[in-house]
């Protein structure tokens, strides 16, 4: 995108590139979107639960180059698009709980009358362990037994397990998930225990800050080695339509120091040298990981943290701006 910089509402090449990448990874894409030729909406269903959106920008600025007549990414929007795309693709993961219902019986007196649900779980694990030999290096299947019986002398009539299934791209993840499900179905067939399974997890306005989401982002950036923070309430400058979004739903926004010394500033010619360099790639990876980790926190802790704390701090409907109200029609 750096080499094909385009003005706002004219980002046809950048939009096409992002849309194609998202489709390759299993996203359902609507483009154009809301009557904007270079806008799109990409959706990936991950089961019931919270919904998380990442918002890319990919427009460039005019007035650069030797004759001040060139369009260039002097604000780093090519990296904003790349980091949000990376965060979305990082979330290619399925979380599935498998439950087996058997028939309880005394393990010594009447073993022939029992249908062992725990056997089904164990056979499922055996199948998955064998399957791992034929999976791609970027894929991971990790599981635990969450229920396996109550007493040694009783054949378990109920057993359950949970799995995280991860892959680099959604297309392969769906293929791998189906193989895991097939292992469960095979265990059902071998034991007679009944199987069920399900996903267990999943004008510009001012920016409304949310302490809950900001704390999550702060923690994740700190884990990635970013330790020097400036309070955004004090240092905020410029405008962004992310402010409009923040009046509609809880939003987190942050900016990362370029790391360039002497410092470079957005919208300046010197920024162009940084934004396409090696150091910028490190910052990009940090931003991508922080966004993805924060999104995972939302998915994994909906009732413990976000729905109680963040929604509590979110302003009531009376504070929603007229523009945000228009968006919600």
Protein model, in words:
The protein is an alpha+beta fold and 329 residues long. The protein has 11 helices and 10 strands. α2 (77-90) crosses α9, α3 (117-131) runs antiparallel to α4 and α5 (211-223) packs across α9. Strands 7-9-5-10 form a 4-stranded antiparallel beta sheet, with helices on one face. A two-stranded antiparallel sheet has the order 1-2. A two-stranded antiparallel ribbon has the order 3-4. It is elongated, with a radius of gyration of 25 Å. Helix content is 41%, strand content 15%. The two termini are 34 Å apart. β3 (61-64) and β4 (70-72) form a beta hairpin. Residues 96-184 form the Peptidase M20 dimerisation domain. Keywords: Hydrolase.
CATH-level-2 architecture of the largest domain:
3-Layer(aba) Sandwich
Structure summary, number of beta strands: 10
Assigned CATH class of the largest domain: Alpha Beta
Instruction: Give start-end ranges of low-pLDDT stretches.
Output: 233-239, 316-329
Give the CA-based shape. Answer: elongated
Largest sheet: 4 strands, antiparallel
Question: What is the average per-residue confidence, as pLDDT, rounded to a whole number?
Answer: 78
CATH topology of the largest domain: Aminopeptidase
How far is it from the N-terminal to the C-terminal residue, by CA?
A: 34 Å
> What is the count of DSSP helices, taking H or I runs of 4+ residues?
11
Task: Tell me the series of helices and strands, N- to C-terminal.
Answer: HEEEEHEEHEEEHEHHHHHHH
